[in-house]
Amino acid sequence: MYMMKKTNILRQVLLIMVMAGMAVPTLAQRQFELRNSADGKSMLYVYLPNAVAATGKAVVCCPGGGYHGLSMQNEGTNWVPYFMDRGIAFILLKYRMPNGDPQIPIQDAQQAIRTVRDSAQAWHINPHDVGLMGFSAGGHLVSTVATHAMYTERPDFQILFYPVITMMNKTHQGSVDNFLGDKKEDEAWRKQYSNEMQVQRHITPPALIFSCNNDETVPPHTNSAAYYQALRKNHINATMYIFPDGYHGFGYRNTFAYHNEMKQLLDMWLKGIQPPKADAIRVACIGNSITAGSGLDLADVNAYPGQLQKMLGRDYYVKNYGVSGRTMLNKGDRPYMKELAWADCKLFQPQIAIIKLGTNDSKTINWKHKKEFESDMQGMIDELKALESKPEIYLAYPIKVWQNSWTISEKVVSEEIIPIINKVAKKNKLKVIDLHAVHESADQVLKDGVHPTKEGSKKMAEAVYKAIK
Fold first, then answer.
1. Per-residue model confidence as pLDDT tens digits over 198-225
2. In what order do the strands lie in the sheet with 43-49?
3. Is the N or the C terminus of the chain less surrounded, counting Cβ atoms within 10 Å?
4. Hey, which bits of 13-81 come out as E strands?
5. pTM summary value
6. What span, in angstroms and rounded, lies between the C-alpha atoms of 164 and 143?
């Protein structure tokens, strides 16, 4: 109790100083080193702000160097005062060079994320507010982890400075050579780590990108801009700034003409990230394109899970695990339980799970396997029940089909699938959310008669909110 009062008093003193226009000193910090690999060649240099000033945000930094060396000062330690002044934990990663084995630096970056989240309570960090920041080849490492890693090892946000993104044409060939080694001529490997091709909706985290127009080392139009376009195409929150000049490798140099502007832009972006609370109740929205937000711009925000997050606030952490075209049926043309999203969802360890599948199952090509719909749904429920988090499970009816596009059938949905959902819900003593009745007219769905509009998605979110609350 005494410490809480002391903390509040200090915060009030700092606030008074700011309002009075007085200079607020950089708050004290702790710093220490940790081994990040068994051989000790990968290290973490940890800088923690004073606990009073800590915002809960953390940034793991990956310096550049063409996968041949590391710019540990300009793209590393020089950033420490910036983050300490803002109450953000800063963890500088010394990652091992790949020497032709991409998994070596990838494993180091993923291990760093795990360490930070495992240490969240002791380091005064919100485990849902851990970002990766990378420069040049370090930016490639960040975007690789952001697009390839599973939930427990993936950052919540990414900050990229003049990043190498592609392993294809017009990129930094030295990074390609060092990263891929003898596989550098293998097109499949080059595509696998060309991260503009690996962005995944609702999986890849938001990004901030900085580059210079006259960067001849890592051309921005084939790297930064390509990544931005891929993120935006997949409705992921992305922001990009391309300065008129500055070439490559400006890092934290105050001789960079736009150094102060860069810091201001970074400040604004970081403040705009509003993570759930550290102890937020985790909600997984499992479904098909209707959950994913097909047809909606900025689906992360406008699909029903995004609108549900806004309604529930920071006490809840809502994740959209919708994947277009997927079926509950394991013999369907695109079974949901064979998707990365399903594996990622289970790693998320939800405390509440909303299952909304069945629309695509009603297609002629899929409903011929209808005898297995009940058992496949039971299988999904059983896997959720087996999770350590023991989630409260809700079964949601498919929304009404206003037009039988792609052989999706309203008759099958209402007369066959919904009764099966009721039967499974009764057997497992689960609550049901009637999303079939939320849309009062075809005006609340798109012209295809299947996918909800932004307003239609809001109606769905309201029904789920009411069920949860």
1. 999 999 999 999 999 999 999 999 999 9
2. 29-35, 43-49, 89-94, 58-62, 130-135, 157-161, 207-212, 238-243
3. N
4. 29-35, 43-49, 58-62
5. 0.91
6. 9
